[in-house]
Specification:
It contains 15 helices and no strands. With 385 residues, the protein is an all-alpha fold. The protein has one domain.
């Protein structure tokens, strides 16, 4: 088991150092590493996990990584997976907060290269997922329809509604079709642990604000604020930012500096908690803010997976999941355009770099981290001219 933990740490840390481009790109990086390269799970099980995490509040890509760690190595595996994926960017953002003034600029060419490579990564993931999750005309149509709706209704609530509608359609359309056996989801913990996790989640969400007037501590205030935000935000890091800006006592300039820094580092955007916690209360504040921000994700995933692994094996659920999985492909297709393509490609030369990195990734099958480095160099050269 020790070797398995080391394996999880290596894989997740590599992803934590190279996964640029936001949640949609992270899903692509995860698929390359865990499905294609390491074969820890197949596309169907991976899509089931992605679909589940889309329903839960918090950072979906981090929850996918935690879920894979839980399946691979139990509760400790989930913690190790989170540490590897999250801590590189947390450390970088803490250093930004400690050493960079609010006037620091993050609009350099190498950052543009990081944005550009995300287009190739997401496109590559989309091709692979379409082949296995939307292989026929009906499911391709579901995917395209969901992509259109996602672009027309770009909200977290809209995304959840789209997944639900696709699931209902899938249930009625595929309920009489032959259903493949659900890929096995082995967990080292059961429903009792799941129930305890759910109870703890709601106890903390309820009691922390109630006790806040009686506890005069900046660390308690940080824990309460970031736990609450991490518990109730759907839609990923960009959605959490307005809430944090209202809740956290830092200047607008400093907040925007942290946002720029968070865009420049790999990993989840929720790690901006490390920057803001460092500004508010030093290293201790940063560590508490990060822990509190991600704790709801752990509790929700641990609480849900034991029940999800049971209900997803039912024939009706499997039929619904055919629609849901096609919807996930559609949502990823929409994300490929906005925000990935729209934020990365600002000129013909940017699209040239997209074509180069896509060819290296798909045709020559270079490792994603190598393609990231090449894109960084190309972005730096092109945008310095």
């Amino acid at each position: 088991m020790k070797n398995r933990y080391i394996e999880i740490l290596k894989a997740s840390t590599k992803l934590g150092l190279t996964s640029f481009g936001g949640p949609a790109a992270h899903i692509g990086y995860f698929r390359d590493e865990y499905v294609d390269k390491r074969k820890w799970l197949d596309d169907k099980l991976y899509a089931d996990i992605v679909a589940l995490c889309q329903f839960l509040p918090g950072p979906a890509s981090s929850q996918v990584g935690i879920s894979i760690g839980l399946i691979r190595g139990g509760l400790l595996g989930g913690i190790i997976s989170w540490i590897g994926f999250t801590m590189p960017s947390v450390i970088l953002l803490m250093l930004f907060a400690a050493f960079i003034s609010s006037s620091g600029s993050f609009d350099s060419g190498w950052i543009q290269g990081l944005k550009i490579v995300a287009v190739a990564v997401v496109a590559h993931a989309l091709i692979g997922m379409q082949k296995s999750l939307a292989p026929d005309n009906i499911r391709i149509s579901i995917a395209i329809g969901c992509a259109i709706l996602t672009l027309l209704f770009p909200t977290a609530v809209g995304q959840i509604a789209i997944i639900l509608i696709a699931g209902i359609f899938g249930y009625f359309y595929f309920k009489n079709a032959s259903i493949d056996t659900a890929p096995e989801m082995k967990l080292s913990f059961g429903k009792k642990t799941g129930l305890i996790s759910w109870i703890l989640f709601f106890i903390l969400l309820t009691l922390l604000p109630l006790l806040k007037p009686f506890v005069q501590s900046v660390y308690y205030t940080i824990f309460d604020t970031y736990y609450r935000v991490g518990s109730i935000v759907f839609g990923g890091g960009h959605v959490v930012l307005p809430m944090l800006q209202r809740e956290v006592d830092v200047s607008a300039d400093m907040f925007l500096t942290g946002y720029g820094a968070a865009q420049a580092v790999p990993g989840p955007l929720f790690t901006i908690a490390g920057f803001l916690g460092q500004i508010t209360a030093g290293t201790g504040g940063a560590l508490i803010a990060v822990f509190a921000m991600f704790l709801p994700s752990f509790l929700l995933v641990i609480g849900t997976l034991p029940f999800w692994s049971i209900i997803r094996s039912k024939k009706g659920i499997q039929a619904a999941l055919k629609g849901v999985n096609a919807a996930v492909v559609g949502i990823l297709l929409a994300a490929l355009y906005d925000p990935v393509f729209t934020s990365a490609v600002n000129s013909p030369i940017d699209f040239v770099i997209v074509l180069i990195t896509f060819t290296l990734l798909v045709v020559f099958k270079l490792a994603p981290y190598k393609v990231v480095l090449i894109s960084v160099v190309l972005g730096g050269i092109v945008h310095s001219l």
